[in-house]
Amino acid sequence: MRDCITAFLPFGGGVHTKQTAQELLGNDAIEKVFLLVSSDIDETIEGCEKLKIDNLTSSNTIKTISEKSDSRYTLLLTKDVQIKFGYFAFERFCNVAGDTGAGMVYSDYYEVKNNDCKKHPVIDYQEGSLRDDFNFGDILFFDTKALKKASTENYEFAGLYDLRLKVSQKRPIVRVPECLYSSVETDTRKSGEKLFDYVDPKNRKVQVEMEEACTAHLKAVGAYLEPEFKEIVLEDGNFEVEASVVIPVRDRKSTIGDAIESVLKQKVDVDFNLIIVDNFSTDGTTEVIKSFAEKDDRIIHITPERGDLQIGGCWNLAIHHEKCGKFAIQLDSDDLYKDENTIQTVLDTFRKEKCAMIVGTYQMTNFKLEEIPPGIIDHREWTPDNGRNNALRINGLGAPRAFYTPVLKEIKIPNVSYGEDYALGLNISREYQIGRIYDPIYLCRRWDGNSDAALDIIKQNENNTYKDRARTFEFKARQRFNGSK
Q1: Predicted pLDDT of residue 363
Q2: Bridge partners for 444 per DSSP
Q3: How far, in Å, CA of 482 to CA of 224, rounded?
């Protein structure tokens, strides 16, 4: 297995790249090594050839790589980090690619952070793995024929994303569940701090390109939906109140009182209530809720009869309650409504747009309600004309969410505690319009007690796999939906 791989490495002049390049050059499987440089770097590495690029993820760079690679396989390092390859790693990449007919192969890896080496498993790629931030690790291993056939559009930022989407249309993308290399980690932020990178306002131009690439992919595979929606009739149904705020809660003694108060102070032109599903709290949360309920009959305090309910199940219990209103509005037990006009703003939007669901805008705060980066999350990619297609790419739909209850009762909510709202939004958007509120109406508090403040890699992978699976379900449903038209 000699001279079958051409390798491409981003090079900023660092010693770590020299070490990686030398390891590559010393292996019989490597035919050539190219250094990808985006600035005028005079320094070079003996045995390597420099290629000037604009940026690592552009279409121009992908085309350059495609033109320069004449080997059977192409290895692309996607970060300027030091890589140490495992024993017979190149042979393993080649064998898996050949045995499976994969267009692209990636693998688990060891992550070296502060001289501590840990396994970093990644997750399997599936049809719903449309997130542009899907973690393949630092090495992408292509069958060069598949690479050359997957010509990308003229993207400044989305070229690499567009490449893997096009590769996936013709050939499998395969994960090797083995650590084939070690990577030195430089991004030491907690998982909760990385969570909102994809909606960073600085990345807006990037987001637009990613949406274009994803939309083109959906059209190519028959999963794109035209902006044609089923209308709802808001006058349908007989409800005791117009709106219900729904709070599922377990063990949030320190925050539930603030959440309740933010609901009770709302100024609304119709009757509303607050349904709290207290899922067997043990820390005093129950007593806090009771203290409020004794003073205000708008509060409906429910304790489930069964013990297998996650957040989604608690929502199902609330919306099927006889006192649930025509519209159900979300509030997490950690969070608050921004001011006394949140419910009214949501109801006005329902009446104006006659939609089945509304996605709001929220502001990130710390526990003291002081704004923290990235500040306001408005999800402007959730547009009326293409939002439900782009929703298959992004990793969340915004907050608060609000629903036309009859539709919610029909669809049901997945009984899980992560991603249930996302899966539900995808399902609803297949046929119904999603209304939008772009002014902040919700405060999302980040603190050490948040369920996703600092997750280990196993839990992160579990969460991402679930959302990818929800996307896959919806992806296939939309293909079937289009086929039945």
Answers
A1: 96
A2: 364
A3: 8
Mean pLDDT of 353-376: 94
- Percent of the chain predicted with pLDDT > 90: 84
Query: What pLDDT digit, counting tens, does each position of 212-233 carry?
Result: 999 999 999 999 999 999 989 8
Q: Does residue 193 lie within any of the structural domains?
A: no
C-alpha separations of 228 from 143, 211, 360, 406 in Å: 39, 19, 22, 20
Whichever domain contains 106, its CATH number is 3.90.550.10
Q: Following DSSP, what letter does each residue of 158-206 receive, concatenated?
A: -HHHHHHHHHHHHS-EEEEEEEEEEEE------HHHHTTGGG-GGGHHH
Please answer whether residues 73 and 34 qualify as being in contact, where contact means their C-beta atoms are separated by less than 8 angstroms: no
106, 383, 392, 412, 478 from 433: Cα distances, Å: 37, 10, 15, 18, 15
**Chain CA centroid to CA 284, Å:** 33
Tokens of 34: 């190219």
Residues in the chain: 485
For the chain, what is the domain count?
A: 2
Candidates 414, 415, 436; CA nearest to 356 is 436
Task: Assess whether 159 and 302 both reside in one domain.
Answer: no
* 259 and 110 belong to one structural domain: no
Instruction: Print the domain residue range for 119.
Output: 5-188
d(CA 147, CA 162): 11
Alpha helices in 320-382 (DSSP H): 342-353
Question: Phi and psi for 137 in degrees, rounded to 5?
Answer: 85, -165
What distance in Å separates the CA atoms of residue 466 and residue 103, rounded to the nearest whole number?
Answer: 24
| Separate counts of helices (H) and strands (E) for the chain | 15, 18
